[in-house]
Amino acid sequence: MLKKRTIAVVGGGAASTAFLAAYARRLSGDVAGAAADVIVFEPGKSFGPGIAYAEDVETALLNRPYSSMSVDYGDPGQFRRWLYRQASARERGNPGAQHTNPEARHTPRSHFVSRSLFGQYLESVFLQSREDLRLLGAQVTLVPSAVVDLTVEAGATGESDSHILTTDDGERFVADQVILAIGTIAPSDVFGLTGAAGFVAQPYPLVSSLSQVDPGAEVLVLGAGLTAIDVAVVLADAGHERRITLASRSGRIPDVRTDLGTGELPELLDGARRLLAHGRVSLHSVLELVDTTLRSRGTGIREALRPYTDSWSAPELLRHRLENPLPGGLAQRCVAALSPFYSELWRSLPDASRRLFLRDHYRTYNCLRSPMPVTNANRLLGLHDAGRLGFARGITHVTAAAGGGFTATFAEGRTEHYDAIVNAVGRTNNTAAASASSLTSRLLRNGTFVSHPLGGIRVDPETNRVRGSAGAVSPHLYVIGDLASGEHFHTSSMELVARQAARVAEELVPASDRLLVGAVA
Ligand SMILES: Cc1cc2nc3c(=O)[nH]c(=O)nc-3n(C[C@H](O)[C@H](O)[C@H](O)COP(=O)(O)OP(=O)(O)OC[C@H]3O[C@@H](n4cnc5c(N)ncnc54)[C@H](O)[C@@H]3O)c2cc1C
């Protein structure tokens, strides 16, 4: 009799949940019922939400409309239906409530729901998938610890290798296949301020980290991306009395989401398919394709990208984009529509073009790819106009001041004093920033991982199997999530993580097995 396999899933966040759901779904179409036992490791408070969607303040919002957030790559409306079912259940529990059409309950403002709510959905999908796997014959074990080491022991002749996983409390587990779904690398402390009084090193969860900030403190937020915006909004909502400044090198902030994703762009998608089919992918050809799409809708790339140049200040960008939803909204739609092609387009570009893109265009791309909800844009502009929020560019250095607080230095030599600093530089895919004690660093040191020069680690792009130091692919070790970003380009979104998860589930329950079973039956 064949030995039952064991799959270890390291990490219990969105990527892990997407994998379990995809694996259960794929297995349920397999009459042989070859479900492996599954062990999931997660040191956080619960299984499902991970870091991105952990329990936090209600004002920490998803950056995409709820209708485009789903853990199932093939079913983009899954979260929306979950939300509506929750609302219906509440109404049923309250007979006096008016029964409304679910679509009518949501105003444009509420297209952006809290990340914690999405976390609750993930938790329910995780639990449902665990139950589905049990019904399919798998034993599912949840281990509330971090994995600190992973080694491979060669199997006896004819047997496959064993993967030994060691947790932070010293327990050892053995698995045949391992899925690493450990998210991104924690934000680094670029100015070495850890330990200084008034320095908040990790902003999430905001509910606990920001309660450490004195309401009367002059606050500098390091970073000006989505994390920094979360920090500013939550501090202001908590009644912060003094000015908050968002500071970064470039001073750029994310765009305002003015496209809610209705209406397809078939000519753009056909164009991308043609470029790939004819091997004509270059930075120029992709930009030209976007330009042609925008032109057919009455604008062009030059006009659409005008507000994202360095000469625009953050308040100018906010004001302009709130008053002019187009053409930036159309550019956002083009960027989002191309996401099924990101990985292939990225891999088809010459290496020099990829580096050029990362150096000169990535910031603008990311501004459009991950814009802030309109709610937050209005809030930021209101705070700015009331003199409660500032934006500073060109920050070069921050030191803890002898008498308490911090001194920040800016490019023109100007220095400013701040009482408190919140580190909101965001998580990274730069493996050099991983802490020496992390699993990622350990696997880099022992050669299981090799850093990808464009971020994350080397993987086989077709299967997400890890590529080790000798260039060989580890047959039973997979990565899902941002660690695969060097190979796939953009991976930091629910949609793209779910796509990778579905792909890995396909590898574990290959179609050929399914066909074979069907033939026998
Ligand atoms: C704050 C934040 C907000 C975001 N908002 C959005 C959004 O609104 N929309 C969107 O599409 N995308 C968003 N993203 C992008 C996000 O990266 C993906 O959508 C997705 O959630 C990533 O899931 P993940 O499981 O890969 O990572 P994570 O959410 O980071 O989960 C990884 C899990 O692995 C666990 N883990 C790590 N190391 C170990 C270990 N050694 N052993 C065991 N467990 C381990 C962690 O505890 C964590 O729970 C956001 C990201 C962040 C960080």
From TrEMBL:
UniProt region (Disordered), positions on chain: 90-109
InterPro entries: FAD/NAD-bd_sf, HpyO/CreE_NAD-binding, L-asp_N-monooxygenase_NS-form
Residues of the FAD-dependent urate hydroxylase HpyO/Asp monooxygenase CreE-like FAD/NAD(P)-binding domain: 8-184
Highest taxon listed in the record's lineage: Bacteria
Name of the protein in its database record: Pyridine nucleotide-disulfide oxidoreductase
Lineage: Bacteria, Bacillati, Actinomycetota, Actinomycetes, Kitasatosporales
